[in-house]
Amino acid sequence: VVLVVDFGAQYAQLIARRVREARIYSEIVPSTMPVEEMLAKNPKAIILSGGPSSVYEEGAPSLDRALFEAGVPIFGMCYGFQLMAIKLGGTVDNTGAREYGRTALAVSKNASTLFEGTPAEQQVWMSHGDACSAAPEGFTVTASTDVVPVAAFENDEKKLYGVQYHPEVMHSTHGQQVLEHFLYRGAGIEPNWTMGNIIEEQVAAIRERVGSKRAICGLSGGVDSAVAAALVQKAIGDQLTCVYVDHGLMRKGETEQVEKDFVAATGVQLKVVDASERFLDALAGVSDPEQKRKIIGREFIRVFEQAQAEIVAEADPGEPVEFLVQGTLYPDIVESGGGTGTANIKSHHNVGGLPEDLEFQLIEPLRQLFKDEVRMVGSELGLPDEIVQRQPFPGPGLGIRIVGEVTKERLDLLREADAIAREELTAAGLDRDIWQCPVVLLADVRSVGVQGDGRTYGHPIVLRPVSSEDAMTADWTRMPYDVLGRISTRITNEVNDVNRVVLDVTSKPPGTIEWE
Ligand code: XMP
């Protein structure tokens, strides 16, 4: 394992990703972890991330010098670089000269482990106030910029390396190469970590942990729970039962997809609970978005608990149901560490994610992975693209895409419109360019139109195509007009009671992706 020591902000996650792109397994640890604990993980290399602080700030995160003397290859980036410099006797000045953004890096001609084979001048991404003016003893300075005399250094003998910039970001044009030089040449690690390895390791670990007991898993139809279930199914076969709650707020074909495609690909034991009536009853007369979300979340948990009780009752007494499988991802874990004091914009109900007070031990086989890695694991496990490449779909489903009261008729109407939009987007090859495209029914709005020779008085449908990286921010997707035109024509022709299609051209913020 390669440890990425996190000094704050978002850098560590990205570094961990880049290490994995170099086909080496990495894990992030907080900078507050004691050095002995880090070393106890037997890391083959350690990377010190950047961070928002100045090394001279009071209370700024630090590291025990012993880490640098443990004989483990270390690569410091930005803040990590400066920390390494002062801990080992170099000089870091609070010069007041800030350097931010794209910067030209001049690489010295001396042989360098990190920079070999890269251009003498290359673009890097800088973001710092303090600057290193003298490298520690025994270190060679390997690069500089107009502002900082020591922008990179290395001590090949001790296997210690550092750069002032951020090699992990895309704007550092040779960043990945420099990182790989550290990993392969500096630390001598073989790049052999693959999705196949993860599956094998997880399967063995789950088998051992579960033994002859039983596990259940809530399937939402989303990528994460599907891949988690498929992985656990591979490990323990029929000792796993999946529960899929159909709340009637699914899109066209979605339930069938889980029932057929997923079962066909995995052979999993599936319990489908049709609870659509129950949800519709509970939602009757409600049009407030928050109230809808709460009702959907609450009903979901009740239905799941009931299904789970049935499974437990049916299980062999010798094989208790002791485990609950969840598709928790790495970013979920990282994000849940922070985020205090943030405003509650909407109550997200990760329907398919489950109540915390269920009395089970958790199996979370994807907790070390990022979304695109999960997709790769899914494909490797033989799940079809329709499941693995799915765009995100919110747990409360179409319930929060009908502005107004949710009724069966309105759901059917929206399902038709949504199916048309999805079909056309897929046909135009846009599925991967668009993060997701909510299709929203403004059920409480009517407008006048003309169709055939007559007046119509129907509802508008909103198309909300967005581009995003993590759904925290988003921009509206500049989609080809002809595709928009086809979707509009088909929806107004084929869906009763819809006489207008409009495009949402709001970014997030100020809009959110979903309308409710
Ligand atoms: P918003 O509307 O907050 O959505 O910009 C951001 C992303 O989250 C999805 N979303 C949800 N996903 N349960 C979920 O599992 C929810 O309650 C929920 N609400 C929104 C939304 O589709 C988008 O991808």
TrEMBL record:
Catalytic activity: XMP + L-glutamine + ATP + H2O = GMP + L-glutamate + AMP + diphosphate + 2 H(+)
Binding residue positions for ATP: 220-226
EC number(s) from the headed UniProt entry: 6.3.5.2
Alphabetical list of CDD domains matching this protein: GATase1_GMP_Synthase, GMP_synthase_C
Keywords: ATP-binding, Glutamine amidotransferase, GMP biosynthesis, Ligase, Nucleotide-binding, Purine biosynthesis
Tree of life domain: Bacteria
PROSITE patterns referenced in this protein's UniProt entry, alphabetically: GATASE_TYPE_1, GMPS_ATP_PPASE
Class of enzymatic activity (EC top level): ligase
Pathway annotation: Purine metabolism; GMP biosynthesis; GMP from XMP (L-Gln route): step 1/1
Catalytic residues of the enzyme: 78 (nucleophile), 166, 168
Entry-linked InterPro entries: Class_I_gatase-like, GATASE, GMP_synth_C, GMP_synth_GATase, GMP_synthase, GMPS_ATP_PPase_dom, NAD/GMP_synthase, Rossmann-like_a/b/a_fold
Occurrences of domain GMPS ATP-PPase (ranges): 193-390
Oligomer and partners: Homodimer.
Task of the protein: Catalyzes the synthesis of GMP from XMP.
UniProt protein name: GMP synthase [glutamine-hydrolyzing]
Source species: Streptomyces olivaceiscleroticus
